[in-house]
Amino acid sequence: MAEKLRQAHDDVIAANQQDMRAAEAQGADPAFCKRLLITEKIFAYMIDRLEQAARLPDPLGIVLEGHVEPSGLEVSRVSVPLGVIGIIYEARPNVTTDAAAVALKSGNAVILRGGSEAWRTNAALVKLMQAAIVEHGLPEAAVQMPASTDRQIVRELLRMDRYVDVIIPRGGKSLIKAVTEKSRIPVIKHYDGICHLYLAPDADTAMATALTVNSKCQRVEVCNALETLLVDQAAAERLLPEIGRALTAAGVEIRGCPRCRRILPGCKAAVAADWGAEYLDAILAIKVVDDLEAAIKHINRYGSGHTDGIVTGSLTSARRFQAMVDSASVLVNASTRLSGGGDYGMGAVVGISTGRLHARGPVGPRELTTYQWQVYGNGHLRQ
Amino acid sequence: MAEKLRQAHDDVIAANQQDMRAAEAQGADPAFCKRLLITEKIFAYMIDRLEQAARLPDPLGIVLEGHVEPSGLEVSRVSVPLGVIGIIYEARPNVTTDAAAVALKSGNAVILRGGSEAWRTNAALVKLMQAAIVEHGLPEAAVQMPASTDRQIVRELLRMDRYVDVIIPRGGKSLIKAVTEKSRIPVIKHYDGICHLYLAPDADTAMATALTVNSKCQRVEVCNALETLLVDQAAAERLLPEIGRALTAAGVEIRGCPRCRRILPGCKAAVAADWGAEYLDAILAIKVVDDLEAAIKHINRYGSGHTDGIVTGSLTSARRFQAMVDSASVLVNASTRLSGGGDYGMGAVVGISTGRLHARGPVGPRELTTYQWQVYGNGHLRQ
User: Fold this and answer.
1) How confident is the model at residue B316 (pLDDT cuts 50, 70, 90)?
2) What is the distance between the alpha carbons of residues B228 and B236, in angstroms, rounded to a whole number?
3) SS (HEC) of B19-55
4) What does CATH list as the number for A2-188+363-373?
5) Which residues of A touch B60 (CB under 8 A)?
6) End-to-end Cα, chain A, rounded Å
């Protein structure tokens, strides 16, 4: 698929240019057009992701466990494909190749329903991926897209629980909500990323500052960007002035609680809605908390269970934080931006699940498998 | 909980007798009353299941995997409780203690919504289980039942996706269907068990007969009982006369395809609806198939992906069958009645999932856990 994509460079770019012109003619906003556009950098990234997926170990046929019962019955559990995966997404065309790669890597068939504005681009991509899989003996239908942009097709797809095993919506909250409500098929979904860092009393000033700035600023519009900073009251006077300077220098607007504003009088006052806000922007809420327990309580109340971290040198605090914060990823002394497939060594992922069932956190090829119980007897009966 | 149940014997039996009298007064049918009744044997079984669950290894805090990234970031995935589990079930009161045991074993809270006819029994059971957990420092609310039999409470429960993490319906198909359609919460469900055995050309006559009879007759009303027997045409004339005699002796009605009826002329003719029927009764459909591939095709078309088996001495046939039959449990030379938690060494289970996501096959304590990504850095930033 990577090879075919490289060969089809001009066709894909031409199709994408057609989509771009149509979107611009319809007055699509610049942010939307930016997501739709395949730049040379994105094109190279798409190839890279396909090659990366190819290099990953095969997640199928893994004996997850196995034992012999006292009766002599041999029981094992072996990973197998999940089945047919429906991906419903919006403008970004790189999702088309990313998702197909992850789904195929684990032996699944995939139905790709991208945004109607990217239809020509996606059709070009699906065509070349089909050519690649057919050349290697797989059925063409293992990678497919609907015949038209008709939204009725999506509604019908979501009711085909006999044929489709899981739906993965990728996009804004309204898309995810609509898909979840209408689907009869199980959904692996990705809601809010309301990520917190808690700076413990002993947090090193330089490390706390660097982790806060990196977590907030490395990329603001993504789900694992920091949205609320919790600072222990025992460290607030030491840490906040330096962190405030660094954030302001990076162009971040601070919205502080009363205790934060006593130390950083220049910052805006946080209102109730700031706790639990997913800004996806250069804004950070800061709250001074009484202690570790108050931080844990705040995170479990206002967080979204996506990614939360602590900065500390205390073993007790780190362990208590990990035990009590009920989130998919809990980090100690690391940037929230490191939560996700790539930095966890998973290679390619199709999203980050905020659900608790089946897959929690990054969804890579392994998360798109299920298992089969394989049992060997020698005429074993039930008594 | 087992100890408290033993102590509360008289209270539980008295409450159950009240439920029984009320059900009989309302003219409930005998099969229903039989499911509702706690006999001394069932009472002992309930205690045994609680003790069995207590003896199982703790499924929490298991490091499922872990590694160090080239950057030095330490990444691991650790099992944690799923959260709050809602069980919606019908008459059998032993589900109350079984389900609570499995859910609690993996650190979950459980909401038990049993049938209204068993309300007094369930209230007595929940009361003693609450007393037991409170004595051991757990919150009383970790095991609870709704305040009344009002069905509106169930409808509201199914919409509480913010608070309840998974719903497990146990009962007839109509209950499961209704719950699945109304629930906003993910459902682990258990639909049909349309189980097959395929007898390969080389199947040993004695083993094939014993496995067929045990799979069909050991208990007819359960999900892993045999419903369709597939016999290879190369072995039909050798195997069917003996199998037919054994089944008839066991009181089983045979519904055969034309080729089967040429060998067993006395049996009833199968109609189209017999392929894929879940009799849950002393009835067996028998079809003579051309070969292994025809058997696989039949099972994947008419089966329910629950449990299917092959009887053979051929390594190639066994491996091909396991690779191609897309079912939760695939057995070689073993009774279909052996698929399930107990015979897989899982101890206590809360059901057998026919879904593909999260849990497939028996649902024990481990299947009621999820995981958390735990990450340690030393000031690691995203570049």
Assistant:
1) very high
2) 15
3) HHHHHHHCCCCHHHHHHHCCCHHHHHHHHHHHHHHHH
4) 3.40.605.10
5) none
6) 53
Instruction: Provide CB contacts within 8 A for A378, sequence distance 6+.
Output: A72, B333
CA distance A268 to A216: 17
Confidence of residue A120 (pLDDT cuts 50, 70, 90): very high
Q: Quickly tell me which residue has 């957990």 as its tokens.
A: B133
Tell me the HSE value of B47 on the side-chain side, using a 13 A CA sphere.
15
Q: Where are the beta strands (DSSP E) in chain A?
A: 63-68, 74-81, 84-89, 109-113, 143-144, 166-170, 195-199, 226-232, 253-256, 268-269, 283-289, 307-311, 329-334, 352-353, 361-362, 369-380
- What is the tally of helices (H) and strands (E) in chain B? 13, 16
Task: For residue B338, give the nearest of A73, A218, A370 by CB distance.
Answer: A73
Closest partner residue to B330 (CB to CB) among A83, A362, A372 is: A372
**Could you tell me the pTM of the whole model?**
0.93
* Domain ranges (residues) in chain A: 2-188+363-373, 195-342
Find the helix packing angle between B119-135 and B94-105, rounded to 10°.
Answer: 30
Whose structure tokens read 């290099």?
A: A55
Indicate the DSSP class of residue A342.
Answer: G
* pLDDT of res. A154: 94
Asked whether residue B17 carries a pLDDT value surpassing 80, the answer given is yes
Q: Residue B310 forms beta bridges with which residues?
A: B198, B332
Closest CA relative to residue A194, chosen from A218, A167, A215: A215
Q: What is the pLDDT of residues A33-85, one digit of tens each?
A: 988 999 999 999 999 999 999 999 999 999 999 999 999 999 999 999 999 99
**For residues B154 and B123, is the Cβ–Cβ distance under 8 A?**
no
Percent of chain B at pLDDT > 90 equals 88
Helix (H, G, I), strand (E, B) or coil at A289: strand
Give me the phi and psi of B230, to 5 degrees please. Answer: -110, 125
The structure tokens 């109730």 sit at A272
Give Cα A302 distance to the centre of its chain: 20
Confidence (pLDDT) at B348: 81
CA distances from B205 to B190, B209, B304, B331 (A): 33, 6, 27, 18
Contact B382, A337 (CB under 8 A): yes
Sort out which chain B residues have CB atoms less than 8 A from A334's CB and list them. Answer: 73, 375-377, 379-380
Residue of A nearest to B361 (CA): A373
- What are the C-alpha distances in Å from A38 to residues A137, A196, B201, B247? 29, 33, 57, 66
Q: Which of B220, B222, B13 minimizes the C-alpha distance to B120?
A: B13
pLDDT of residue A348: 81
**Phi and psi (nearest 5°) for B51?**
-70, -35
Neighbours of A73 (CB within 10 A): 21
DSSP label of B116 = G
One-letter amino acid of A232: D
Q: How many CB pairs under 8 A join A and B?
A: 183
3-state SS class at A306: coil
- If you write DSSP's letter for every residue of B336-373 in order, what string do you get? GGG-STGGGT----S-EE-SSSS--EE--TGGGEEEEE
* Contact in structure between B325 and B308 (CB atoms under 8 Å): yes
The better pLDDT of the pair B193, B191 is held by: B193
Residues in chain B within 8 Å Cβ distance of A335: 377, 380-382
Beta-carbon-side half-sphere exposure of residue B156 (alpha carbons within 13 Å): 8
Query: Looking at domain A195-342, does it have CATH number 1.20.140.10?
Result: no
> Which percentage of chain A shows pLDDT scores above 70?
100
Q: Is the pLDDT of residue A198 over 90?
A: yes
Chain B residues with CB-CB distance to A184 below 8 A: 180-181
Under 8 Å CB-to-CB from B359, ≥6 apart: which residues?
B188, B353, B367
